[in-house]
Amino acid sequence: DGIGPEVLAEARKVLDAVDQRFGLGLSWDEALLGGAAIDATGHPLPPETLEKAKASGAILFGAIGGPQWDTLDRAIRPEKGLLGLRSEMQLFGNLRPALLYPQLAAASSLKPEIVAGLDILIVRELTGGIYFGEPRGIEERNGERVGFNTYIYSESEVRRIGRLAFELAAKRNGRLCSVDKANVLEATVLWREVMEELAPEYPQVELSHMYVDNAAMQLVRAPKQFDVLVTGNMFGDILSDAAAMLTGSIGMLPSAALNQSGFGMYEPCHGSAPDIAGQGKANPLAMILSAAMMLRYSFDCAEAADAIEAAVGVVLDQGLRTADIVADGDVAVSTSEMGDAVVKALAS
């Protein structure tokens, strides 16, 4: 939906180029999800889409949603398609890096000296917690409407996301901060206990804990203190968007959602941006970097992923910028021009 097709087209260009360069043997199939699927089939996650997803090696996903679908029943809105795909494919582990390219330090809302060199990985549990907990709903009690949701995590869910976070921290700088609200919420008391139980299995990783309100403050006070953060679905949703803005634009940030077998869905952190759809203003770099994550995590093609990430750095060195990151002295380019520039950088 929205800018999804535009940015996905640029990622296709880049993947075609890297496929040719490294002989990866990539093949494609396409399917509808979200609002586009509703318009075509009446359902945000058509059975055909789910079948194709299950038959694939990975999913590269654009964006969903827009105001034209906001009046639909909640059960068939575009977001239900994405949530359904995550659930059906058991994509429990959401990886959201907040990496600041040095060329964009001035674009951050914080002082360059606070964010220069920023490289954080937020690991968000994606299929449990308050977004999926039951019971939930809106009902009348004592003559007034009451809305309620259930924040719930099982020990196995916490252990699963904890292991993923520890393993990723072990491959980075060996520091893992688990974010909870254990002073108030029993569900996160359990979360903290399970993280502590896992820690002895990863002696090379230093585990710390932080309440979510403090973590939010620390992200804008001294973000470089963090290496890997792991947290539940709702806290991760909020903190990862806050971290995104430290990098100057959410249009720069990729993400991955993985299951236990290593299958992944890869998507930019930004939304469908219907206000700029079709205008060639969208930044495709988050989508392109999501494609690089796909090569790295699902296909074990680290060399090709490195090449894409290096090409993005070359393009930024050249001063090429889409509207969301352009500043005085930069060269403003369109969505397709940015994709072409990355392809050109790959070739050189």
Task: Give a brief outline of the structure.
With 348 residues, the chain is of the alpha/beta class. The protein has helices at 4-22, 35-41, 47-54, 78-88, 112-115, 155-171, 186-198, 212-221, 233-246, 285-297, 302-317, 335-347; strands spanning 59-60, 93-99, 119-125, 137-141, 144-148, 175-180, 206-211, 228-231, 254-258, 264-268, 320-321, 331-332. The strands form three sheets. It has an eight-stranded mixed β-sheet with strand order 1-10-9-2-3-8-6-7, with helices on both faces. A two-stranded antiparallel sheet has the order 4-5. A two-stranded parallel sheet has the order 11-12.
Description of the molecule:
The chain is of the alpha/beta class and 348 residues long. Helices cover 42% and strands 16% of the residues. It contains 12 helices and 12 strands. An 8-stranded mixed beta sheet has the order 1-10-9-2-3-8-6-7, with helices on both faces. Strands 4-5 form a two-stranded antiparallel sheet. A two-stranded parallel ribbon has the order 11-12. β9 and β10 form a beta hairpin. α1 (4-22) packs across α10, α1 runs parallel beside α12 (335-347) and α6 packs across α7 (186-198). It starts with a helix and ends with a helix.
